[in-house]
Amino acid sequence: MPAVSKGDGMRGLAVFISDIRNCKSKEAEIKRINKELANIRSKFKGDKALDGYSKKKYVCKLLFIFLLGHDIDFGHMEAVNLLSSNKYTEKQIGYLFISVLVNSNSELIRLINNAIKNDLSSRNPTFMCLALHCIANVGSREMAEAFAGEIPRILVAGDTMDSVKQSAALCLLRLYKTSPDLVLMGEWTSRVVHLLNDQHMGVVTAAISLITCLSQKNPDEFKTCVSLAVSRLSRIVSSASTDLQDYTYYFVPAPWLSCKLLRLLQCYPPPEDGAVKGRLVECLETILNKAQEPPKSKKVQHSNAKNAILFEAIALIIHYDSEPNLLVRACNQLGQFLQHRETNLRYLALESMCTLASSEFSHEAVKTHIETVINALKTERDVSVRQRAADLLYAMCDRSNAKQIVAEMLSYLETADYSIREEMVLKVAILAEKYAVDYSWYVDTILNLIRIAGDYVSEEVWYRVIQIVINRDDVQGYAAKTVFEALQAPACHENMVKVGGYILGEFGNLIAGDPRSSPLVQFNLLHSKFHLCSVPTRALLLSAYIKFINLFPETKTTIQEVLRCDSQIRNSDVELQQRAVEYLKLSSIASTDVLATVLEEMPPFPERESSILAKLKKKKGPGAVSNELEEGKREGGELNGAGERPGDSSSTPSPSADLLGLRSAAPVSAAPPSAGSLLVDVFSEAGPAAPAASVNDDGFLRFVCKNNGVLFENQLLQIGIKSEYRQNLGRMYLFYGNKTSVQFVSFTTTLNVQLKPVDPLVEGGAQVQQVINIECITDFSEAPILNIKFRYGGALQNLSLKLPVTINKFFQPTEMASNDFFQRWKQLSQPQQEAQKIFKANHAMDTEVIKAKLLGLGTALLDKVDPNPENFVCAGVIQTKSQQVGCLLRLEPNAQAQMYRLTLRSSKDTVSKRLCDLLAEQF
Amino acid sequence: MIKAILIFNNHGKPRLSKFYEHYTEDTEQQIIRETFHLVSKRDENVCNFLEGGMLIGGSDNKLIYRHYATLYFVFCVDSSESELGILDLIQVFVETLDKCFENVCELDLIFHVDKVHNILAEMVMGGMVLETNMNEIITQVDAQNKMEKSETFIFQSPRQDR
């Protein structure tokens, strides 16, 4: 008999669903849904109390509408009411609605918790399961607070029904994941672990998920689970397929549970107890043996289940990485799967082999499959599988097969799917560098990479090839020759032009002896690409040209002519124009010696982890990313700075470079240790500029009543502010002054709102400026936080400042007469519209100073309004984009008591409050 | 952990969506669309696993799916689950539905969303597997139906029911 007979159910619901299905258009569907929503809403709101059946029907309709992708913003209360019904059907539909539609932040949680509490104590297993399900589905902190104590008790109690135990285990797991601090296992630990021995396989199935999660977090407390898991596994593996009856799935005994047991064991190292270990090895061998036996069924489900266990066993063998015998067997098994006709198995085999390749015992064994894997890369129909094949090739690569693998990957790149090209490019670049025996092969590979997949070659990759060429003089001549040849192609990728420009600019002289690549030929070749390139590449080429002038004086006139032409010297792009002007000037006024110094060959880059590797790690997801990567990223950033202006080779700021306004963007970390940098180290040791993690708001309050001044100052840095405001708009100029004689590098500022980047270098004694445009959208109390980071000497400096943007900056002064003022004052008489403070004077009570401050606030100071001439009254309107807020202010000084009373009234309570708080600190 | 279980038809119409992590309604709909887009463009007879879409966590998650006649059953899981194990689980789910509805078809899922949710709830709870034994699952569902039947008599006759 079918468990759900088709005749019953709710007719109204069926009719509604049919209506929707018959709708011819999206519009008609929406119309029908809106009609139904209105109907349900009116039914819920109606006076007539709905019976449980109707409520159930309407809630079902809402669920259906929700599934179609429409927001449901009512019905929650009705669902909660259903929970307290004592009819199963109503309760059940109530819980269903809540688990689908209520999220953990809902205000209804308290009501739901009450219903759950009742059901948990009802001792009706069905109700208890519903309640436990609901907790597991919503899993909010409030629920954890309410039930984290109760659920372990239900889980381990002797008289709890099996089905309830199962639910309790997973419910507890969910609470542990959301609020681990609230789930105290202590006294329950051993009884929970012993659930692995429970007679009911369903209980073990549920409990093992809980135990696995707890073991990952507290391995020591749960380590007794290892021997229990091994014996459970052993009993399953050695059982005949009929022993476990219902848990036998297509002739495989308890496959799901076996997988989970093998996963649990992967949380621990191999068992120390010899007997346990022996038993486990026996299990693993049995599983490997079974794979070779003829299948008990031809159904795919049978082999699926069998192989699921096999793959987990192999994963465990790889995890232990200590049994060479098992490792080799595992590798052979995977090798068989590599040629299996089931795509799923090929996929999984490639994936498992990836981890196997990193084991020293099996690396060689994995390598024997290289031809199969290469073949998979070429012939698999499924991109997911090809990607795994590429991963495996990457993992099995070493010095012996690098050339073959890189060549195969390169040729695959020509036809690779777009989605994986970038990753492939990174992998090829890394392998080429890692296993390069001769660097000419490396240069060839990278240039090929650019030729084949130029669009996917990220900056990191071409920066890296330049770094390596600069650092190795044995490859420089070859590199120059090769890029020169590559540039001969009529259409070459812009990245090729960049690499070519850079390398010829540095090492073009090494091939200039050959008349086919004479200086002028080189220059003409580069310049023929110039007009097709983007601005950054053109900038790079201009720098290459000035380097040419230094390398080959005979090209000077030709190049000067190019620089002098209007399209360079009057280029609308300021960077290009500046370079053209400066280089032209430099080449015409500097003596050969100066020129040779300024345009000297780039110094070697410091050896460091490849930034490409960091990038790949990043692509591979945050799990693999450690602090190391952060380091790599930052260095990558510095390299960027170097890459953009390759012409400026002055590694120490020389006077002539400064004279020309060339920002020395050479990698500062690459500067040879000089007396200067030693000095810096001494300073930074002794210096006061400890990383300021907390927000500094010393200067903040001083700017409430003024717009210009010094916001922050320490021994290193001074920050000045100039700001102007009109209506709801403002503009703030920030001036960062370097008080030392050494430059700040990697100077960045971030605001918790958007900010244009500031020049990353601040020269010693120099000042850079940053402009912030401000628009007041609505009233606010929190000031934006400006975060400043830079490197001074070796030390990273970190500074957080509250920017003095306060609500009063958007005041428009309003002049008004006495009558008007008091009329409005009375209009704003609701208690929340007023804010008042009585406070002691912090400064001398000088009338003129007070007046100046009130004017600085931005309001109009109203004369002859207050009957008491000692008092000050002001009026103004705060302009925000969304609204205008009128404000009135009264300040009453009491000279005898040295006290003030400050009263603010405005049409918005938050504005009154904020202004009052700000002003109370000013007098 | 299972992050989400989605069923949609060949045209991308969702027939069941169950998320075990919280997303806004809007994101949930986008995830369904994205997943449909990823899965539906794949040929038959390719492998049943692929990396998850961006919205549901990218390559940290896998989509494991099976295509039955007009319906796609997609489980989005993290790396702690066995791929083949999940395929078996999908099979158990479908076989269970088949037993409960007697030759299940898309229409059954449309008209009995609540039942499908209940059956699923007997298998998966909070993203973890509760029970894999089909007979056990069906016993539970049967018991629920019995309770429902016994209560139906109390309800008013569903005749002028709109």
CATH architecture of chain B: 2-Layer Sandwich
Low-confidence stretches of chain A: 1-7, 621-693
Task: Indicate the CATH topology of chain B.
Answer: Beta-Lactamase
Rg over C-alpha atoms of chain A, rounded to the nearest angstrom: 37 Å
Largest interface, chains and sizes = A-B, 81 and 76 residues
Q: Are there runs of chain B of 5+ residues with pLDDT below 50, and where?
A: 155-162
Count all strands of chain A and give the number.
16
Task: Note the run of SSEs of chain B as H and E.
Answer: EEHEEEHHHEEH
CATH class of the domain at 362-598 in chain A: Mainly Alpha
Number of strands of chain B: 7
Largest sheet of chain A: 6 strands, antiparallel
Membrane topology (chain B): Peripheral membrane protein
Domain AP complex mu/sigma subunit (chain B): 1-147
Keywords (chain B): Cytoplasmic vesicle, Golgi apparatus, Membrane, Protein transport, Transport
Protein name (chain B): AP complex subunit sigma
Written overview of the protein:
The complex is a heterodimer of chains A (923) and B (162). By secondary structure, chain A is of the alpha+beta class. Among the domains of chain A are: 9-78, no CATH class; 102-184, no CATH class; 362-598, Leucine-rich Repeat Variant (Alpha Horseshoe); 697-802, Immunoglobulin-like (Sandwich); 807-921, 2-Layer Sandwich (TATA-Binding Protein). In chain A, the strands form 4 sheets. In chain A, strands 11, 12, 13, 14, 15 and 16 form a 6-stranded antiparallel sheet that branches. A 4-stranded mixed sheet of chain A has the order 3-10-9-7. Residues 1-7 and 621-693 of chain A have low confidence and may be disordered. With 162 residues, chain B is of the alpha+beta class. Chain B has a single domain (2-156), classed as Beta-Lactamase (2-Layer Sandwich), CATH 3.30.450.60. A 5-stranded antiparallel sheet of chain B has the order 2-1-5-4-3, sandwiched between helices. Chain B has a two-stranded antiparallel sheet with strand order 6-7. Chain B is globular, with a radius of gyration of 17 Å. Chain A: Pfam families: Adaptin_N, Alpha_adaptin_C, Alpha_adaptinC2.
